[in-house]
Write a structure and sequence with these properties.
The protein has 765 residues and is an alpha/beta fold. Helices cover 45% and strands 14% of the residues. The protein is built from 29 helices and 23 strands. Bound molecules: pyridoxal-5'-phosphate (PLP).
């Protein structure tokens, strides 16, 4: 297809200019409109189909940059590229377009991958969430410290969304009424006629809003309530894996689920089915507890429609399923009863009715929703949901054996595992076109929609020609990344270095500190001659810290300070480089995962529910250095343990070590590690008087829970394994590991995850 004429016409329609006069934003909006035009019939047909659908309720959708992914999935990339070439415009110009970062990390990115896979596989899964005015903050560094800036993503326009005023809903809190306006995005699958919808709600002032009453809420006591309706969806909370009992966050969660459920009910009522049958047509997946207020809200709405409480509860049992994403206590949501009483009394009433059922039928010391004046959202979800799932085998086993042990004993059939996945379209075809082409030349292109086919590549892993091709492609990807890092972060990384990468949110449990210590250990080892023949390595970090997470921010400063030390050392910098790239996001991830030589997945065993970046690296042919945690376990099983670098304490050993752990003694018996740790306090590294390095030191050695994540306990095993990986690098056996990993990644397609959800939980056609 030649789109030249349509591009010209759309440019006139939208901007009244010729294509040659257009800037990047205008071009981006026109090309996006062209995609919308081409998808509109399939979108309409999918929307109108009167079939059972599932709503994926999620506070986050980390969709990233959509224009290239949509062109790819519409199979329009080549034609649009050629059409633009007629105007001497390069498709790469859209690299400037910023990501839609309506999510923090893994959980939000998972939601985006799931929607894409469902559309590709023809499964009727629609997303419901929040249209944050500002997404996850943009990160830069000032003197090595993280600095946050607002993410004004809408400055590029929002050409893939359609505002649907006709579907506006009213969401009521005890103190305010808010209008919810949906913005719909088509979810375009790869080469698929099914186009699902991502409906994101924006809050706006309700016309009859009582500004006088609002005005009267003066004084600091009420300051927290003094936002207007618009502010509910103003900004994404930048906390990953943590619960903050903030009223505004409660409002966001309720706003999203109330609007979505009202919407579903209103649409259902236009069809001629009985309300009692609604669960035969519409079910929901709760992405973590953030949307769990949907359960009492649905109870409330169904009763308003005339059903009895018991009828409404039966529908809820059939309608809701719950995905748990973490076992960390600090991440489990527990809303104070008095907060719900104050802002959402009618919702609280329904929750109390559920607690009454428990009091009357179960041992309420073991089973409870409300306890100590807190509403335990995970328990609420488990009590009502038809199915509860963990996101990797090991994580589901921990849920059953530990976190939700009593619930599992009560409802063993409720619990399922659905291991997370990633879409191979964005995470191989789009970000690694050269490797994609090479794979297609070997085994055709069926693997793109059926990743099981990728295992056919296994018969080529010892093929010298293929191995050489892979090396060349990796080298090209490394050059692209190196150029980008130089431009973006002003550090030059030679492409013949090993690229050792840890990219993910900054969390103590993810143990970026362990990686940092190993770098300093290697630095000292090279200097004193105890580490010889170390193959030149660039240690690449990317991570945002929650703005209020003191220790995470301290670790960022520490790594940036190590980077200064190493990169400015005239001798060692010939062998080592350290870079912490700023503003790690989906688009940066796309460039990084295809260029990495080693994937760092080093969380304390039991802490990372699944991880998904581990899968992105694997699919791009990068071995993992990792603990037996989350999906690392399944990665090692799929590829073979010898093809990855597994180290450290397992879940059982972690529990054992924690019984009587003495990090102080451990350091006294390990002078080399002691020297590394003392860099935090001996003046080697300067935190500019902030005291953050001493705080890290204290977290490891002093206080109630010293070294809570066993950084020091796993150090020896880690450094040993890291040095082995370093010696393997560049040899044929190393590239064999790369290729075996890539060829064994089929399980980690989110297509497989979605088909698992459908088979075990949703049962959609
Ligand atoms: C995949 C992804 C994540 C998740 O990374 P984990 O290492 O699994 O925690 C986080 N952020 C971005 C931008 C991603 O693309």
């Amino acid at each position: 297809m030649d789109y030249t004429k349509e591009i010209e016409e759309l440019m006139r329609l939208e901007y009244q200019i010729d294509v040659k006069e257009a800037n990047v934003k205008q071009l981006y909006n026109v090309i996006s409109k062209l995609i919308m035009l081409k998808v509109s019939n399939d979108w309409h047909n999918t929307r109108c189909a009167d079939i059972k659908k599932c709503g994926y309720l999620s506070a986050e959708f980390l969709i990233g940059r959509l224009v290239y992914a949509n062109l790819l999935n519409m199979k329009m990339t080549e034609d649009v590229k050629n059409s633009l070439a007629n105007f001497h415009i390069d498709l790469n110009e859209f690299e400037e377009v910023e990501d839609a970062a309506l999510g923090n990390g893994g959980l939000g990115r998972l939601a985006a991958c799931f929607l894409e896979s469902a559309a590709t596989k023809g499964i009727p899964l629609d997303g419901y969430g929040i249209r944050y005015r500002f997404g996850l903050f943009k990160q830069n560094f000032i003197n090595g410290f993280q600095n946050e800036e607002a993410d004004d993503w809408l400055k590029w326009g929002d050409p893939f969304s359609i505002r649907r005023d006709e579907d506006a809903r009213i969401v009521e809190f005890s103190d305010m009424k808010v209008k919810a306006i949906p913005y719909d995005m088509p979810v375009i699958g790869y080469d698929s006629k099914v186009v699902n919808t991502l409906r994101l709600w924006q809050s706006e002032a309700y016309e009859d809003f009582d500004f006088k009453a609002f005005d009267n809420m003066q004084g600091s006591e009420n300051a927290i309530n003094e936002y207007n309706a618009k502010e509910i969806t103003a900004v994404l909370y930048p906390n990953d894996n943590t619960y903050l009992g903030k009223v505004l966050r409660l409002r966001q969660e309720y706003f999203m689920v109330s609007a979505s459920l009202q919407d579903v009910l209103a649409k259902y009522k236009t069809k001629k089915h009985s309300l009692k049958d609604i669960a035969k047509y519409q079910i929901f997946q709760l992405n973590d507890t953030h949307p769990t207020l949907a359960i009492p809200e649905y109870l409330r709405l169904l009763q308003k429609e005339g059903l009895s409480f018991n009828e409404a509860l039966e529908i809820c049992h059939q309608s809701f399923n719950f995905t748990n994403h973490t076992i960390m206590g600090e991440a489990l949501e527990k809303w104070p009863v008095e907060m719900l009483e104050k802002y959402l009394p009618d919702v609280l009433t329904e929750i109390i009715k559920l607690q009454d059922i428990i009091d009357n039928t179960l041992d309420n010391t073991k089973y409870y929703i409300i306890k100590d004046n807190l509403v335990h959202m995970a328990n609420l979800a488990i009590f009502v949901a038809a199915k509860v799932n963990g996101v990797a085998e090991i994580h589901t086993n921990i849920l059953k054996a530990d976190t939700f042990k009593d619930w599992y004993n009560l409802y063993p059939d409720k619990f399922e595992n659905v291991t997370n996945g990633i879409t191979p379209r964005r995470w191989l075809v789009l970000n690694n076109p050269n490797l994609t082409k090479e794979i297609c030349s070997l085994i055709g292109d069926k693997w793109i929609c059926n990743l099981d086919e990728l295992s056919k590549v296994k018969s080529y892993v010892t093929d010298k020609r293929f191995l050489e091709k892979f090396k060349i492609i990796k080298q090209k990807n490394k050059k692209i990344l190196s150029d980008y890092i130089y431009k973006h972060d002003n550090i030059l990384i030679p492409t013949d270095f090993m690229f050792d990468v840890q990219v993910k949110r900054l969390h103590e449990y993810k143990r970026q500190l362990l990686n940092a210590f190993s770098i300093l250990y290697i630095y000292y080892g090279i200097k004193d001659g105890s580490i010889k023949n170390f193959k030149p390595t660039a240690f690449i970090f990317g991570a945002k810290s929650a703005p209020g997470y003191y220790m995470a921010k301290a670790i960022i400063k520490y790594i940036n300070t190590i980077a200064d030390l190493v990169n400015n050392d005239p001798e060692v910098s010939k062998i080592l480089k350290v870079v912490f790239v700023a503003n790690y996001n989906v688009s940066y991830a796309e460039k990084i995962v295809c260029a990495a030589d080693l994937s760092e997945q080093i969380s304390m065993a039991g802490m990372e529910a699944s991880g998904t970046s581990n899968m992105k690296f694997m699919l791009n042919g990068t071995p993992t250095i990792g603990t037996l945690d989350g999906a690392n376990v399944e990665i090692a099983e799929e590829a073979g343990f010898n093809y990855n670098y597994i180290f450290g304490l397992n879940v059982r050993e972690v529990a054992k070590v924690k019984e009587n752990y003495n990090p102080y003694e451990l350091l006294e018996n390990n002078p080399k590690l002691k020297r590394v740790v003392e860099s935090l306090i001996d003046g080697t590294l300067n935190d500019l008087g902030s005291g953050v390095f001493k705080a890290i030191y204290d977290s490891l050695l002093n206080g109630n829970n010293p070294d809570n994540y066993l950084v020091l306990a796993d150090f020896d095993s880690y450094i040993k394994t890291k040095l082995i990986a370093n010696q393997d690098y560049g040899r044929d056996i190393f590239y064999e590991k790369c290729l075996i990993n890539m060829a064994s990644a089929a399980k980690f397609s989110s297509d497989r995850s979605i088909l698992d959800y459908n088979k075990l939980i949703w049962h959609l056609k």
